[in-house]
Amino acid sequence: MQVKVVDYRAADAAEQFTRSLHETGFGVLSNHPIQQSLVEKIYADWLAFFNGDEKAPYAFSPETQDGWFSTEISETAKGHTQKDIKEYFHIYPWGRIPPQLKADAMSYYKQANQLAAELLSWVEKYTPPEIARHYREPLSNMIKDSRQTLLRVLRYPPLTGKEPAGSIRAAAHGDINLLTILPAANEPGLQVQGKDGSWHDVPCDFGTLTINIGDMLQEASQGYYPSTQHRVMNPTGEGAKRSRVSLPLFLHPRPEVVLSDRYTADAYLQERLRELGVKM
Predict the structure, then answer these.
(1) In what order do the strands lie in the sheet with 190-193?
(2) With 0-12 CB in 10 A as exposed, 13-18 as middle and 19+ as buried, what is 133?
(3) What pLDDT is attached to residue 245?
(4) Residue 90: which CATH number?
(5) Overall number of domains in the chain
(6) What is the rounded distance in angstroms from the CA atom of residue 228 to the CA atom of residue 242?
């Protein structure tokens, strides 16, 4: 299984990138327009926030799903029984954000959203006509005026050796949304599952951008774009003593968007949140 690394500035970038998404569910972009200096600053500032004492007032809201999710209430991946070893903060433009971190977070949210919209237009352009006819509306229109797109700041804490048996930083899962935009984390660990069940490291050179298909786009495309299972493995050696920080943007359609005969975007989202154990 080969996840392609595509130069965003190449003349055939859109075609090569969408081919990788179709074949593997993943694609990696180099020379992309998101500012690496901003990503690194966000990593450093939010790591300090997670290590500090200011988190409690931002405890997550079950109704709005914004704010800080502690390791105790972290997700349990679908089909698994152990919670992931992580904490995270959900950022929406309308939600709660620590004031000292808001400007950078919103700057990144805007940059990543603009790029995500462009990449979604690439996907739409290179969808075969026999698949595209199943889209209930253009993909680019599905995200117009959406308030659901989520920026998640993730911290995987250093391992203590006392973790429950079988637990890992992020158990195998598929994302819920249309596309996920993910700058390379400060530490390795991301793996993608091949069609034969084997696991492969995702290219993660610092400064690259990983994009993967979510379940909603798989549903809308009749499976042409696969929502591939992926996971974050526990490090060993010195890496186990360090936190891993990542910054995925989950591109979501408006709630009323019809994905298929089976689901609207909201019905799909609510079902998955219940499966993850973060909503009753």
Answers:
(1) 170-173, 230-232, 190-193, 199-201
(2) exposed
(3) 94
(4) 2.60.120.330
(5) 1
(6) 27
Cβ-contact 203, 239 below 8 angstroms: no
pTM for the whole structure = 0.94
- Residue 45: is its pLDDT beyond 70? yes
Query: Each residue of 195-222: pLDDT tens digit?
Result: 899 998 888 788 899 999 999 999 999 9
Residues 227 and 146: their CA atoms lie apart, in Å, by 21
Residue numbers of the domain that contains 210: 5-276
In whole angstroms, give the CA distance from residue 49 to residue 153: 11
- What gap in Å lies between CA 99 and CA 4, rounded to an integer? 38
- Mean of the pLDDT values across residues 24-43? 95
276: Cβ contacts below 8 Å, ≥ 6 apart: 75, 76, 77, 78
How many C-beta atoms surround the C-beta of residue 215 within 10 A?
21
Per-residue DSSP letter, 144: T
- The residue among 42, 241, 81 whose CA lies nearest residue 157 is 241
The letter for the amino acid at 85 is I
Q: What does the pLDDT read at residue 162?
A: 86
